[in-house]
Design a protein that fits this description.
Chain A: Keywords: Ribonucleoprotein, Ribosomal protein, RNA-binding, rRNA-binding. Chain A: Belongs to the bacterial ribosomal protein bL20 family. Chain A: GO terms for molecular function: rRNA binding. Chain A: Its main location: plastid. The complex is a heterodimer. By secondary structure, chain A is mostly helical. In chain A, about 65% of the residues lie in helices and about 0% in strands. Chain A contains five helices and no strands. In chain A, helix 1 runs parallel beside helix 2. Chain A is elongated. The model of chain A has no long low-confidence stretch (mean pLDDT about 90). The two termini of chain B are about 30 Å apart. Chain B has two domains: about 45 residues, no CATH class; about 110 residues, no CATH class. By secondary structure, chain B is mainly beta. Chain B is built from one helix and 13 strands. Classes of the chains: A mainly alpha, B mainly beta.
Chain lengths: ~120, ~200
């Protein structure tokens, strides 16, 4: 990369790293290495975030993430975690329907109930 | 864009022979529509293209029953949009789509601009009153779309470096993508339905 491209990529860097070519070149190379690595890490992080969100959504209805996904796999519902997390955030009624389907996939289950409220949550 | 003037009926659909309970719906369901989810990309087979969401239409998206009243003083020129969403699988990835919006998918080979495309792999259809959950797909549901653009994605610099070994590789990459605009979601009415509370 020539100097012009290096300085273009070094915008916003701290101190001399955005102005002086020797320092900027090192920092830009490091930044590009990090971006290569983090394009792979982003996929892991996003999946972890989706799972956390689905977990939170199902626990509001009395199920946890593991049993919920097990029920969905049993019923051959192939929605992925990204879509499930979006539905749990924005479409609460559809998500409740999915939770019910997953819960009823195992005939031994009793009716899923919302968890008991403790402390100040009782007032809500 | 076709003027979608279907009016919603808030009467719950009768349950089919599957074990669904018909509970009358009283609360609005689609809070989705106010969010711009145009970039939920899901890879799919080589299906027809799906249109993207427009920003103007997203701004108009309906969130409660009042907008469907006959006197639309605020938006007289906007066509009435169906309040339905679908989860469709394109290019190996799943997207949440709304009629009138666009999405970016992997390049659909053999589709030129202004081609009509039908997506068959519909995993979930949701309306204000009911959800059609597919196992794995909703039978007979299709999503119609129009190819808007076949472009390359923004450039990504792939820089490989090994320290103290004098190894540096600098490669640019632009992924071919297609922008498709969703026109309609149809064919789901006969499927088993979960009527929502």
């Amino acid at each position: 990369m020539n100097k012009k491209e290096v300085f273009k990529l070094a915008k916003g860097f701290r101190g001399r790293a955005k102005n002086c070519i020797r320092i900027a070149r090192e920092r830009v190379e490091k930044a590009l290495q990090y971006s290569y690595r983090d394009r792979r890490n982003k996929k892991r992080d996003m999946r972890s975030l989706w799972i956390q969100r689905i977990n939170a959504g199902t626990r509001q209805h009395g199920l946890n993430y593991g049993n919920f996904m097990h029920g969905l796999m049993k019923e051959n519902i192939q929605l992925n975690r990204k879509v499930l997390s979006e539905i749990s955030m924005h479409e609460p009624y559809s998500f409740k329907a999915l939770v019910d389907i997953s819960h009823n996939a195992f005939p031994g289950n009793k009716a899923a109930s919302a968890p008991k409220k403790e402390g100040l949550a009782i007032l809500v | 864009m076709a003027a979608l003037s279907l009016s919603y009926s808030l009467v719950p659909k009768p349950s089919h022979n599957q074990t669904q309970t018909a509970i009358s719906l009283s609360r609005p369901n689609l809070s989705f529509l106010s969010h711009s989810l145009s970039h939920l990309s899901i890879t799919a087979r080589k299906q027809p293209v799906v249109p993207k969401a427009t920003d103007t239409e997203a701004a108009f998206s309906v969130t409660d029953a009042e907008i469907k009243s006959p006197v639309l003083v605020s938006e007289p020129a906007e066509p009435k949009r169906e309040e339905v969403f679908a989860v469709v699988m394109v290019g190996g990835r799943q997207y949440i789509v709304f009629p009138g919006r666009y999405i970016y998918t992997q390049r659909l080979k053999g589709a030129s601009v202004n081609d009509k495309v039908t997506l068959n792999k519909v995993l979930l259809v949701g309306t204000k009153t009911s959800a059609y959950i597919g196992k794995p797909i909703v039978p007979n549901a299709t999503v119609e779309a129009v190819v808007e653009e076949q472009t390359l994605d923004k450039k990504v610099i792939v820089f490989k470096y090994k320290k103290k070994k004098n190894y540096r590789r600098n490669i640019g990459h632009r992924q071919p993508i297609t922008r498709i605009r969703i026109t309609s979601i149809t064919g789901y009415q006969d499927s088993p339905v979960t009527t929502l509370d």
